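Standup notes
- DV: blocked on the single-chain target, sequence here:
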Amino acid sequence: MTLTTKTLLLLGALALAACNNPRPGDTFGGGGADGFGGEGGFGTGISTGELGDPNDPRSIAHFNQRIGDRVFFTVDSSSLTSEGRETLNAQARWLNANAQYAIVVEGHADERGTREYNVALGERRANAVLQYLVSQGVSAGRMRTVSYGKERPVEACAAQRCWDINRRSVTVISGGLSG
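- DV (later): unblocked, structure below
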């Protein structure tokens, strides 16, 4: 191995080392004595630590990844499918076991149709989910709904695959209840 090859390998290793994820406290959002992340600083940013470990059944990450945070709808419908009801049953069990959390139920539509029609359809979808969760014992006081219509697609394309994943309702854990 020549000196040039060794130098290139060393530079490559150093470049990779510089690309790793920073530890909490090493960035603007991590807090610390520099004032960036502390009180009045830039905030905490996105932290996977706040969502918890997906293996912890009480964590938000577990809810999002293992329980499932969304249900899908057929074209122009706000009726729950049997698969959607199964997901919502699991959501209800989790929400009833973790009463400290409030949720926002988001209603979405695919890109076809007018803005007004899709906002109304998204609202019907979010309300269908909310009513189903209420029927499963989740307190209505912990939930609110919002409709985004076609404004927040998962994927933006004019294909059946995209329309199918954009016709959805998403249950978002909005944080703990304030007391």
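- Follow-up: Residues 30 and 65 are 25 Å apart (CA to CA).
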